[in-house]
Amino acid sequence: MGSFIVPKARRTTRSKTSANTKAAQEKPVAVAASPMESSASPSSPPAAAEGAPATGDHLAVFWHEGMLAHDAGRGVFDSGRDPGFLDVLDQHPENADRVRNMVSILRRGPISRFLSWHSGRPAHASELLSFHSAEYIEELVQANATGAKKLCEGTFLNPGSWGAALLAAGTTLSAMKHILDGHSKIAYALVRPPGHHAQPDHADGYCFLNNAGLAVNLALDSGLKKVAVVDIDVHYGNGTAEGFYNTDSVLTISLHMKHGSWGPSHPQSGSVDEIGEGRGLGYNLNIPLPNGSGDAGYEYAMNELVVPAIKKFQPDLLVFVVGQDSSAFDPNGRQCLTMDGYRKIGQIMRGMADEHSNGQILIVQEGGYHISYSAYCLHATLEGVLNLQAPLLDDPIAYYPEDEKYTMKVVDAMKKCWQESVPFLKDI
């Protein structure tokens, strides 16, 4: 890395969300009721668990079973392709089973007594237009009307997908509103399809609508002055960054695998020199970590880079974007985090929230594709956010060897670059 970072020229043209017509803004986007919804549905809140902590320490989970209706199909991994010579094709990694296990571990695992459950809802058109262009939303509506469409590599809108995407967006907005209205300081939007790759004007990386981005705009529209987003999904949260690349009201921080661009839908590289433009110069902070950084490497990056940046920014609210695809055994990542690492990151996030944003954190679900281990890592993450004194679950896979020394050198180099290129971080 050079001694000074020059912001990289972007390969995309940022589209400002268009409000086209008043009618387009006010028209609700319909979603059919899921046949899976019933009085016994997991979206119905259970009775309060005996021995639960004080209300302030509860975590509100927002969920709707209709999100299981999205089916991205089968093929070779996420390609949707059948080469004709394989007897067994992969279920797309972003499938309903991964989230079924997340729901079940939270409902029946030891953390259940610390949670309250709330039903999600579909988003309306006017809400979607706070982040996305009207032209893009119309493209999705038309794609849904045709029955099925491949939007980009790995991203398939099939029957049921659009309804699930609307539920994911609306459920995340409901979770944010729950915090803004003072009902809880911590809320978790357990949603799919994921959203952090969805950009204002196109889909990307399994994502149709940017759930976290929509929630951030709701917070700003409700009167908050500054919101910080910390994204630990294994892939760069490029869509969220793109939506706020020109503003100093939102600090976006992404810790991710060093994967670079993956094609026309994802031209951003996630490199350290993509730091924002205009008023947003310095307010997009990328932390591309070496493969295999592991628990110690991530903890070091959080403490050396994220914590001081949040301290300088002083947000009114934190949005914690979580993906368990950074785990040691995820098919879509190589970062080697274990339950201990996720728990520690959750604790650090809680500490920052308590210090800077009156304890307020919105947690938004993104990736995580190991069917069982992702659920365990989610459980550990929420244990950390709740600041529980001891782990509630043992790690079923446990220790994975890691070499954090190289990662620490990389983090130190990034810190020096930030000090030299980001004005508000010159003395971190």
Automatic annotation (TrEMBL):
One of its GO terms (biological process) is epigenetic regulation of gene expression. InterPro entries: HDACs (IPR000286), His_deacetylse_dom (IPR023801), His_deacetylse_dom_sf (IPR037138), Ureohydrolase_dom_sf (IPR023696). Its cofactor is Zn(2+). Residues 28-53 have a biased composition (Low complexity). Coiled coil: none annotated. It comes from Leersia perrieri. Keywords: Hydrolase, Metal-binding, Zinc. This is Histone deacetylase domain-containing protein. Residues 92-383 form the Histone deacetylase domain. Pfam families: Hist_deacetyl (PF00850). The keyword Zinc applies. GO terms for molecular function: histone deacetylase activity; hydrolase activity; metal ion binding. Residues 1-53 are annotated as: Disordered. Gene3D superfamilies: Histone deacetylase domain. Belongs to the histone deacetylase family.
